[in-house]
């Protein structure tokens, strides 16, 4: 057997190595749960690199307050975080641009599955890391097993907790190095109790839910198996890169060879039982031999056998090969399988014809060497496959193929007879001028031409007819099939043998060329589809390109369903008028909606809703399903349509169709995220412009308003003016002071939005802050009573006193504006437990009309007022400023539900921190 490496594989390997050298290296510290020490192990590795003079920088490292982790991070340079505005809060995020500009040798980016704040360049942190890798920067990161996309639902079923931050499997598989960080579950539980995983209150809650010993044991097994799969893939890649044919049986793996004949079901089930007994992976493979043209019934059986194997847990594949034994051995070696299972060959004429080169089992045993061979007897009773009637009649596709085959054979027969007649006529006209050997050459040319156009059966017929014609017309005695010279018997025999050989070889080459051209055309279409989709900027263009390429490759009509904001599918109409030839109009929206909701194919040729007129496939991208493709074969006749549908069910054709769908889905997702990024950029720029405008107006108006207030106060104190003039001056002063307050609100809102306000956190008593706020509003509170229900044992708060005083003043001022004159206002405060931590809850209540029900969700947005047409002064910034300040203190503010007409209550909470010990006197 030729063991030389494939030149195409060598070229692909060289290109892959060049691409890998241009990219940075990704190392993942992988664990089965939080607290196993992934971040600590990553920092240890970083310390070792730093000791080797490697430029190491920490981009994002989540220490979670663990002292030993903080100590590991002490000697590593840190990249400053980028503050991102989100819902009036400033949240820290990884600064991708700063990392790219800094270009360290290795950067530490913790928590690979993290979701970035909306408005960031990428939605996920793994996308940030991919950009770092493409820039040639090495990255160290961490990942838990429950965050791998394919394992997310499995872990959710075990733990009862579903996480929504996931990483696509290809990110994990394409990592250059994966280090498993593992500790026994008992040790992890001990660390949890010692407070080394979470804070005490969080640890108690986690121990009752996620951190149960049974959960941890199951997660540990899943992580170990996933790591083992990764190591096995690395080993197979290493063997392929170095063209190592010898098996390395580090893991049991079985290959079951499936044929197209009846009785393969027992072979498949025996292979499944053998794999279960050996606790091994198993693969079911069918080899398509180009020299054998399979009937549709045989191909339908192959599809049914592969589906059966897949239902029993096998990984299925359909490959091509010139020789069955060599193809099976090559596949087994490529998958590092040490056992090969084949069916026992039946005795008869076929086995007799194979006697010179040996049976399949003998050829595999002779060339297999280290591969164990198992021969299983096939079932003697033929099982009824799907698609056949109970009386054993062929399926509609098989009947259609039989009809088309008869038509092709009829045409081939006519051409064979016509070719032989034309050659005989030409030779007869040239009789006496041509040597008999040249006449034979003319007949052989005719045989070759018929074989090229009409296949093996017609060429075999023309071979026999050519021998008979040569004997009848050109061998003495002429016009008789008898031969006077015995030497002509040998000539006729050789002529027949050569004719049959030429016809067989030409038909085989014709079939191989046809298959190669078909594959080349599909590969070219797939390449062009990817190239064109990458440059498109609108959704209509993507759908039109998809229609055109699918129609060119599969000869089908296409329809696309895309979801609206409520995840309800809508049929999309083509943008171009001339594209109607490829559009499928007869579609079922209900089937499409089911496919979208379940993410599985349905319709014609599937086990779900098979009576549908079209095949419906989900357009599944990395993050979610982006729509549904409806697909129907466009055939000239019913028989051709049935035959094309059956061919579409073949594994290689279905795989090609799914690749097309994936390319279209990825293009739609790329466009979606480009639009999201553009919208976020426009929103950020609009917000920045508005804040800049507010800040400029506030600064420009502040000075003249201050002068106006001062002048009005001087006039009001001037005794030489009469009472009316002084009253007018006091009115001017009061209204100017309100304008000053409005300008202060605008300026504060702009500063909070811009993130330039830094909290001056000090320990303060809530009673003092409340008293200061009430003193500021003393004039506005004239004629009102304020009841304070502040618990006597409230702890001190570590807050910015000026900003929190502003919150209390705004809430009380809001209550004054929207409650009847003289009605009381209540301020209450107490400590409560929330989510395992202590929170200080403060509420401000009045006896006014309350908030309208539709307003409670957006009352804290900027420029929102209770009544836009009200004469009550204000522009709707007071509550927005309150929310920005409270959220900056990691608190929460909301409107408590009240009965209509029972007043309004605004509540906010602040975290209670551990107070410092007082110094001893």
Question: Could you write a compact summary of the structure shown?
Answer:
With 921 residues, the chain is an alpha/beta fold.
Walkthrough of the structure:
With 921 residues, the chain is an alpha/beta fold. It contains 26 helices and 25 strands. Strands 3-2-6-7-1-8 form a six-stranded parallel beta sheet, sandwiched between helices. Strands 11-10-9-12-13 form a five-stranded parallel beta sheet, with helices on both faces. A five-stranded antiparallel beta sheet has the order 15-14-18-17-16, sandwiched between helices. Strand 4 and strand 5 form a beta hairpin. Helix 2 packs parallel to helix 3. The chain is elongated. About 1% of the residues have low confidence.
């Amino acid at each position: 057997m030729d063991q030389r490496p494939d030149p195409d594989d060598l070229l692909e390997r060289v290109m892959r190595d060049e691409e890998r050298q241009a990219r940075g290296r990704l190392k993942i510290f992988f664990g089965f749960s939080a607290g196993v020490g992934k971040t600590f192990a990553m920092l240890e590795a970083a310390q070792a690199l730093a000791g080797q003079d490697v430029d190491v920088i920490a981009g994002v490292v989540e220490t979670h307050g663990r002292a030993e982790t903080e100590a590991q991070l002490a000697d590593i340079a840190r990249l400053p975080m980028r503050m991102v505005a989100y819902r009036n809060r400033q949240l820290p995020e990884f600064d991708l641009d700063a990392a790219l500009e800094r270009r360290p040798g290795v950067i530490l980016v913790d928590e690979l599955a993290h979701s970035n704040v909306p408005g960031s360049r990428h939605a996920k942190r793994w996308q940030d890391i991919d950009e770092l890798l493409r820039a040639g920067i090495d990255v160290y990161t961490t990942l838990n097993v429950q965050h791998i996309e394919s394992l997310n639902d499995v872990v959710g079923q075990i733990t009862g907790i579903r996480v929504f931050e996931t990483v696509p499997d290809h990110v994990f598989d394409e990592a250059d190095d994966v280090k498993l960080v593992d500790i026994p579950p008992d040790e992890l539980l001990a660390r949890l109790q010692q407070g080394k995983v979470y804070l005490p209150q969080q640890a108690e809650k986690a121990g009752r839910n996620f951190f149960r010993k049974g959960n941890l044991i199951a997660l540990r097994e899943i992580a170990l198996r996933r790591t083992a799969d990764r190591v096995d893939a690395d080993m197979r890649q290493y063997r392929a890169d170095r063209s190592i044919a010898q098996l390395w049986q580090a893991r049991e793996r079985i290959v079951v060879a499936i044929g197209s004949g009846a009785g393969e079901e027992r072979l498949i089930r025996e292979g499944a039982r053998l794999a279960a007994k050996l606790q091994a992976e198993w693969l079911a493979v069918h080899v398509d031999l180009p020299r054998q043209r399979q009937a549709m019934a045989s191909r339908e059986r192959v599809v049914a056998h592969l589906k059966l194997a897949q239902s029993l847990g096998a990984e299925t594949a359909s490959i091509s090969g010139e020789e069955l034994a060599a193809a099976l051995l090559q596949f087994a070696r490529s998958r590092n399988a040490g056992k090969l299972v084949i069916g026992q060959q039946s005795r008869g004429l076929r086995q007799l014809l194979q006697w010179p080169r040996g049976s399949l089992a003998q050829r595999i045993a002779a060339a297999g060497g280290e591969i164990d061979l198992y021969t299983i007897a096939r079932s003697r009773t033929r099982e009824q496959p799907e698609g056949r009637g109970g009386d054993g009649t062929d399926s509609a596709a098989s009947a259609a193929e039989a009809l088309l085959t008869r038509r092709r054979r009829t045409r081939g027969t006519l051409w064979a007879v016509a070719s032989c007649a034309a050659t005989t006529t030409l030779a007869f006209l040239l009789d006496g001028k041509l040597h008999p050997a040249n006449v034979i050459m003319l007949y052989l040319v005719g045989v070759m031409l018929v074989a090229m156009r009409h296949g093996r059966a017609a060429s075999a017929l023309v071979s026999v007819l050519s021998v008979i014609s040569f004997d009848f017309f050109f061998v003495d005695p002429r016009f008789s099939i008898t031969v006077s010279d015995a030497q002509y018997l040998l000539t006729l025999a050789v002529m027949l043998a050569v004719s049959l050989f030429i016809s067989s070889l030409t038909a085989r080459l014709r079939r191989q060329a046809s298959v190669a051209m078909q594959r080349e055309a599909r590969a070219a279409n797939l390449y062009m589809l990817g190239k064109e989709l990458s440059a498109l900027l609108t959704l209509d263009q993507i759908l039109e390109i998809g229609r055109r390429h699918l129609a060119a490759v599969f000869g089908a009509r296409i329809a696309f369903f895309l979801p609206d904001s409520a995840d309800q599918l809508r049929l999309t109409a083509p943008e171009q008028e001339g594209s109607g030839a490829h559009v499928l109009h007869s579609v079922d929206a209900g089937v499409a909606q089911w496919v979208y909701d379940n993410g599985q194919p349905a319709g014609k040729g599937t086990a779900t809703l098979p009576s549908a007129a079209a095949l419906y496939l989900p357009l599944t991208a990395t993050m979610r399903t982006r729509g549904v493709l409806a697909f129907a074969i466009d055939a000239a006749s019913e028989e051709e349509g049935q035959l094309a549908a059956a061919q579409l069910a073949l594994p290689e054709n279905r795989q090609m169709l799914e690749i097309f769908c994936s390319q279209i889905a990825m293009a739609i997702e790329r466009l979606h995220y480009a639009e999201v990024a553009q919208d976020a950029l426009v929103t950020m720029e609009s917000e920045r412009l508005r804040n800049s405008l507010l800040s400029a107006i506030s600064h420009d108006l502040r000075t003249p308003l201050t002068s106006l207030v001062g002048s009005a106060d001087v006039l009001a104190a001037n005794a030489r003016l009469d009472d009316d003039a002084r009253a007018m001056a006091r009115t001017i002063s009061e209204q100017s002071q309100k304008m000053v307050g409005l300008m202060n609100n605008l300026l504060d809102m702009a500063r909070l939005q811009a993130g330039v306000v830094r909290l001056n956190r000090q320990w303060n008593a809530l009673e003092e802050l409340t008293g200061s706020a009430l003193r500021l509003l003393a004039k506005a509170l004239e004629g009102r009573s304020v009841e304070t229900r502040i618990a006597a044992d409230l702890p001190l708060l570590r807050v910015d006193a000026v900003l929190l005083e502003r919150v209390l003043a705004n809430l009380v001022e809001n209550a004054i504006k929207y409650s009847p004159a003289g009605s009381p206002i209540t301020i209450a405060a107490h400590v409560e437990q929330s989510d395992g931590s202590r929170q200080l809850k403060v509420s401000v209540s009045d006896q006014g009309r309350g908030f309208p029900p539709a307003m409670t969700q957006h009352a804290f947005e900027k420029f929102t007022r209770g009544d836009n047409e009200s004469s009550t002064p204000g522009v709707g910034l007071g509550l927005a400023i309150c929310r920005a300040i409270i959220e900056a203190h990691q608190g929460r503010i909301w409107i408590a539900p009240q009965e209509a007409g029972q007043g309004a209550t605004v509540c906010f909470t602040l975290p209670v921190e551990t107070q410092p010990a007082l110094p001893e006197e």
